Amino acid sequence: MVIFDSSIFVDDLRAGRYSERIGMIGDLIRNSSVVLAELWRGTTSEAEKKFLLWLADHYPLLTPTENNWLESGRILQRMQGDHGFESKKLRDLHFDVLIALTARTHGARLITSNRADFELIREYRHFKLEVW
Fold first, then answer.
1. Domains in the chain: boundaries
2. What digits encode the pLDDT tens for the residues 27-52?
């Protein structure tokens, strides 16, 4: 099972960067509700809106559990203590932590182009990660 991070979809929508690779995925594809929320937040064109509606119609949605939410807060608190991150950086990381924990809960591989943040998260909680 595979979950794509929003970075993959954004890079593909803007530059067609990953279309071929996405098409070659042989695993079950699932959407993260967090990823779709991030994408909807930044949608500006009709084509993007249609793409998001298509994603929602074609791939089942996985949503963070109550435990994922609680664990995300604990992980972010540890990150802040270890790295001294400002609150803005912690807010930026929160959705990524939720995406990673959701993937972990379902045994899914998370595919992203955001190497730095997801490798940092993996220092606190292991999950299957592939960086494109």
1. 2-131
2. 999 999 999 999 999 999 999 999 99
Joined together, the tokens standing for residue 127 give: 């999950």
> Which residues on neighbouring strands pair with residue 130, listed in sequence order?
111
- Tell me the CATH architecture of domain 2-131: 3-Layer(aba) Sandwich (3.40)
**Angle, CA 3 vertex, CA 114 and CA 131 arms, to 5°:** 30
Place of tokens 């949503």: 63
Overall pTM > 0.90: yes
Find out whether 79 and 85 touch, Cβ atoms under 8 Å: yes
* Mean pLDDT value across residues 81-103: 97
Q: Provide Rg for the chain, Cα atoms.
A: 15
Phi, psi of 61 (to 5 degrees): -100, 135
